[in-house]
Design a protein that fits this description.
Structural class: mainly alpha
Number of helices: 22
């Protein structure tokens, strides 16, 4: 899908550029989830005009629901902690649940799609989001709240992986346009939930349970088009009969025999870079509103600040990949984004309320390391099959790496009694992120590295 906004690659000598399957940024533009190599290459299915319109509506509604379960919680985290008598450590665990679910459940999506069809699995994902978001306000304790959140995140994880598959299958001549629409919907849902959750909660009586549960209505609306589409197997078939659909990402598949990513320094550097940027993104979504609120910023304004951070990813996701593909090494861009983050964290440490809007913008720029990571996945392999394998390796490994970070911030916050040390820890994460990004950004391919050692 070389015409997608975040992975548009110019031809390079000796390479056949083929971008990684889009996934939801762990960051503000999160489209991140593990790549879906097993179902990404399926033949297009002809659809009637009404089915096409229904698919477009389904894609947009699904994208709108892939982040509110996370960012609405970040805006009301203080009220949730008080209502459930949750410690800072447990709140940290809660902010680590999204990347854990994305890493674990994303692996299951390709197999489920081969068996039931991508549309049916997305329908199940929308139902899971609706049920999880609707049930967690009624949880009587932390365990129930975590279980309901995990149910919603499971639905988000499988939908993350399969939405690009459906785009490629049903809109082969409009991949860029539909991916852009899907990405806009995702960013809009992310920012809207961050901005309006607190004022909407206040308008509905002030209960955090109502403020979180109301997002189940939007998810329920998204179930409707997918229920209609899933009933028509021709519109959402998995294509399991095609050879491409049956290929797995196992070593030796897809023309990548002998490609051992565990022996590639670039693959590991890219996985670490992806994981560290995802760490920063989930720390931002989970803790940034609380940092501002503890500094005296009103709850509604804190939600708006998070929304500003999220929105920054929309225009930059179109600009950064195009600039990155024109550079022999993406290291300078990695460093520039990292320095924006370090400046933001320094400001949060010294004057969190005084320069709040500036820090929110800089954090939004820094978190655009996500589309840069996706672009580098496409640049670091010569073949399409290699890109698919590298994407699966970097994203799945990266999400596993990102799990402890938000939890560690919660532990440090609880035992230090303030935000000084946690903010210093957040800034410290950016140092290895820049180092790994510079290594991953070198002008070389995983094929050269792995076969040089064979």
């Amino acid at each position: 899908m070389s015409d997608e906004p975040h992975t548009s690659l110019r031809p390079q000598a000796g390479r056949i550029p083929a971008p990684a399957a889009p996934s939801v940024p762990s960051g503000p533009s999160m489209t991140a989830g593990p790549a879906a190599p097993a179902v990404a290459a399926v033949p297009p299915v002809p659809t009637s005009k009404w089915r096409t319109r229904l698919l477009i509506a389904g894609l947009l509604l699904a994208a709108l629901n892939l982040r509110p379960a996370i960012t609405s919680l970040g805006a009301l985290l203080e009220e949730v902690r008080d209502g459930l008598h949750m410690s800072g450590t447990l709140a940290g665990v809660l902010t680590s649940v999204p990347p854990f679910c994305f890493a674990v459940f994303g692996f299951a999506a390709p197999r489920l799609a081969r068996r039931f069809g991508p549309g049916a699995v997305v329908l199940a994902g929308m139902v899971a989001i609706t049920a999880g978001v609707a049930l967690r306000p009624f949880a009587g304790g932390t365990a129930g709240f975590l279980a309901a959140s995990a149910l919603a995140l499971m639905g988000i994880a499988v939908s993350n992986v399969l939405m690009p598959v459906i785009v490629k299958r049903h809109f082969p001549d409009r991949v860029g346009t539909m991916t852009g629409l899907y990405s806009m919907g995702l960013a809009l849902g992310t920012a809207t939930a961050a901005a309006v959750t607190v004022p909407m909660t206040q308008a509905l009586g002030g209960s955090w349970r109502t403020g979180l549960g109301v997002w189940a209505v939007l998810a329920a609306v998204a179930v409707l088009p997918w229920a209609a589409l899933a009933r028509d197997r021709s519109a959402t078939a998995s294509g399991s009969g095609s050879p491409a659909a049956g290929q797995d990402a196992a070593p030796g598949g897809g023309g990548t025999a002998g490609l051992r990513l565990g022996r590639s320094r670039t693959a590991w550097a890219l996985a670490c870079f992806f994981g560290l940027q995802a760490t920063g993104a989930y720390i931002t979504m989970g803790w940034m509103p609380q940092i501002f609120r503890d500094a005296g910023v009103p709850a509604g304004t804190a939600g708006l600040l998070l929304a500003v951070t999220m929105v920054m990813g929309v225009p930059l996701a179109f600009v950064i990949p195009r600039v990155a593909t024109r550079m022999n090494s993406q290291g300078p861009m990695v460093v520039a984004l990292g320095l924006c983050g370090l400046t933001a964290y320094t400001g949060l440490y010294l004057a969190p309320a005084g320069g709040a809007w500036v820090w929110a913008v800089l954090l939004g720029v820094s978190n655009c390391a996500f589309p840069l990571a996706l672009t580098m996945i496409g640049l670091r392999s010569r073949t399409g099959a290699g890109v698919v394998r590298l994407s699966a390796f970097a994203q799945s490994t990266g999400y596993l790496i990102s799990i402890p970070g938000p939890m560690l911030v919660g532990v440090v916050y609880e035992y230090s009694g303030g935000w000084g040390l946690p903010i210093a820890l957040m800034g410290a994460f950016l140092v290895p992120q820049m180092v790994m990004g510079v290594v991953a950004g070198r002008d070389r391919t995983i094929e050269d590295e792995t076969r040089m050692r064979d």
